[in-house]
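Curious: why these numbers?
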Amino acid sequence: MFVPISTHKDKTSQEEVEFTLMTQASRKLIMLVSFCMMSFGDWLLWKQTERLNSFLQLSRGLDHGQYFHSWYETNSQEIRTFIGLTLLMGLIKNPDDENIG
């Protein structure tokens, strides 16, 4: 005798599988975004330091103000903190804050 399998159970298990796959995909996406932000922060730090050092090399002997000569090397943690504070202050709009649709 043939006993049909409940379609409700199949949908639930399929939904669970889809949810698991979405969760895994979102974790991978979050890891990728985190890696890109870390790489971007390091690149930004390197570029700004290089730019300021070249400016200081060119401006030796000129009096542009004392703040140029009080520059100190920074690190990627300070850059990430700056970007985070900029986002919190609202200078850069977070996509979640905008009305979509």
